[in-house]
Amino acid sequence: MKLLVVGASYRTAPVATLEQLAVGPADLTRTLDRLVAQPYVTEAVLVSTCNRVEVYAAVSGFHGGLGDICTVLGEQAGCPPAALANHLYVHFDAAAVDHVFRVAAGLDSMVVGEAQILGQLRDAYHSATGADTAGRLLHELMQQALRVGKRAHAETGIDRAGQSVVTAALDLAAGHLDGDLAGRPALVVGAGAMGSLGVASLSRLGAGPIAVTNRGADRAVRLAEAYGARATPMAELTTVLSTVDIVVAATAATEPVLTREVVTRALAGRDPGRGPLVLLDLAMPRDVAVGVAELPGVEVIDIDRMATLLAEGPAATDAAAVERIVAGEVEAFLTWLRGADVAPTVAALRGRAEDVVGAELRRLAQRRPDLTDDQRAEVARTVHRVVQRLLHQPTVRVRQLAAEPGGDQYAALLRELFDLQVPQTSPVDTVPDISDDAQPPFGLADLPPSAGPADVPPPGGER
Fold this sequence. Notes:
The chain is of the alpha/beta class. Helices cover 50% and strands 11% of the residues. It is built from 16 helices and ten strands. The protein has a six-stranded parallel beta sheet. It has a four-stranded antiparallel beta sheet with strand order 2-3-1-4, sandwiched between helices. A hairpin with a 3-residue loop joins strand 2 (41-48) and strand 3 (52-59). The protein is elongated and about 110 Å long.
């Protein structure tokens, strides 16, 4: 079984394409089921955020798996898979592990070092486990990815250099409002995770008064009360919009909430002397309709614009330290994975030997009924001892060879030589523990660090 990552992000696709690909909570289980129903896909985790849509999959073949995943992504986007080709990236085996670990560590985020992606990966993993689409391979991959992310933030200063997407967006917004948000009235549209982060960040920066609106009024009230803000009905959106200077829009709506008509009416009742109305659109699909940015007196900062403006990353030393952590963890995971792959083959070989020994002992009992029980027991011990000694060195050596790059070939050769049938592992049955106290699924602490990942290229040299 091989690992395959197929996805699109702010680096490769415009917001319009990410909107097409985005999978909302209501459609997540259906899409995961659709993925594992494909011929070459056996496990799947789907990550869908405002900055990326990625499928992490265990596949039985590279080309077949890639075609299956692209088919599902095309169905989600409502277009032929070929139309997505220029926006998708593909990572296979070692490169797939490297990519997932880099994402978890915040190295692939729009705001390098932000920790929000860890929670998003955890949510994606739990969703896949709940849908029974995360099996043994992705179970181990996601468990370790989350630990790599935690380690990166705990052992380096990337937290100091990085910031959340909301904080970065507010920094950009401050540039349009005399460089300071203190005392600026603000509105947060949406009371989910991103909306909550928006209220917390605005409060910390001294913005206020802060209003919160959400289609579910109860959530808006709870969020507002937690930060001393004011909850307002969604029906009063236009009125409240005319009284604020900055808006953080982060809903899960499938259609824009801040339409051109709504914003135009709000501007009519707003004093233009207060400066521009700054709209931060952090939703996917977008909350601010196309065309609103053309209105006079409005500044729209969306994912596309943030990708262009956020050119500064974390300090080079912190980024380099995280890169080293990721490289070592990737090599450790691949070493474990190669060893784990050969273990069922070794067990099958020993099982075959035991079957042969058992058959011969039964034949001996039929041919020599005159042997006593003690004699038969001594013969059985001797034969078992001979077989174990014969198998010991080859099985130890094949485990050592399997831990090296390309080591999976040795397990395949054993299966071919001895015609071994190795059963496939079944998916995990429960949501695994990914708390801080949970132990790693393999002995990473006992493995030596590596200078970098050992990439295994896909068939035909494709990447």
